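Below: protein 1.
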Amino acid sequence: MDDLVIKGTSIGWSWEKLEKDDTILGCFLIHTMMSWKLYMDENVDKSNEEKRREHGKITHALSGIQNDIHNLSIVINMLNELVDKLKLQSNDYNQHLLTLHASVLLETYFTNLRSIYDFCSTFIRIIVSDKYLKSMPASDSYNSLLKFIKKKTVVGVLPSIVIEILRDNEQVFETVKIVRDLIIHKGEENLVNLNSDGTLCFTLYKNKQGTIINMAPDILNTNQTEYPIMKYLSVLTIRVMNFLDLFGRALFHFFEEIQGFQLPLWLTGLGGYCMTGFIAFLDEHA
């Protein structure tokens, strides 16, 4: 994508070009939903108010998830710049300021990850036949979707493979949810420290009977009270992106099975100033 583009979305990529371009992020869920949007923009029954409303809801969710992914790339860029600035001008004031900024950025990152999941609960509606739409969770909440797939009434509403993909990713979602809820809803302090080697680490601090514990899940298996921020976010984000790819492929496949025709697949790329660094950040721990 042209360097003049601050952030944006482009369509019409080939698999080869998308895979070779390290400035563009491809995601199968975005491919699927953009393909759905381009088709439905021309074919939605505009005389049917319910269909129009459903089309609008899903279209807004598509815009939202693209913004969330761009926001992830922007936060990573800002975290990298904070560390670089500290290396150039290190003193106690700058170090304390850095950790305050990093704490807010970390909160923002988890908020966007959580939002991505909620949009998925909207996208799944494209593979639900009209007669079952009213039985789906009313709220656009991934929590509600996970509760729904555990009920007996889900049989026949959603394909078993899609249910399995959602269940297999539940632990990843729980990590995102736990950290985000601890910070946003429970007001736990997100403490960021700069280690002597220049590594940013974070702790969701709790003193339990004289022992300091980190309430954030230890997905890196460090057995430590502090987790390195960049590695933690990279590993977690890779797991989220892998889920989005599997989920997107399933939606694309079952749309054809349920609707009776295959969507023309438009490969879609997300790019901009911060996306190259974000891709490198993910590749570092892939």
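Below: protein 2.
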Amino acid sequence: MKALKYTFILLILVPACHSKPNQEESPLAVVIKLQAAESFFDLKEAQKFIDVERVFGNMASDTLTAKDAWESVVMFGKSLARDKKFTNFFRYYEYKITEEVSKHNASVCFESINRERPTRKIIFSLESRNNHWIVVSIKYQGGK
């Protein structure tokens, strides 16, 4: 009976000892947190989930940094949200959401259920850095 008790304890303790101490969140969770922080215009929080230089570096110029470009895109969403026709909140229920994960890279794809939308897919590419996923690319694909 005592041996059975110790076996039971070992079965519980051994897997607990081998788990990751800082389990990283899923890539989908990171994308959702990024979108939430941006929708509330909390850029300090949003920066935890995005490599601004990689995602917005192509919009940079002599007078505009990648960070400035990102902030202007987020603020444009804020100005649109003032109009009752638009919202800065993402309607996840209008998309088929898929996630692909490899060892150090991942992608999260939002594919619109509505075939009439001008943007059919939004693809977030992520990299694992220090046991955390970071968005390194956002691509928008149009319809037909």
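The beta strands are 95-101, 105-112, 119-129, 132-142.
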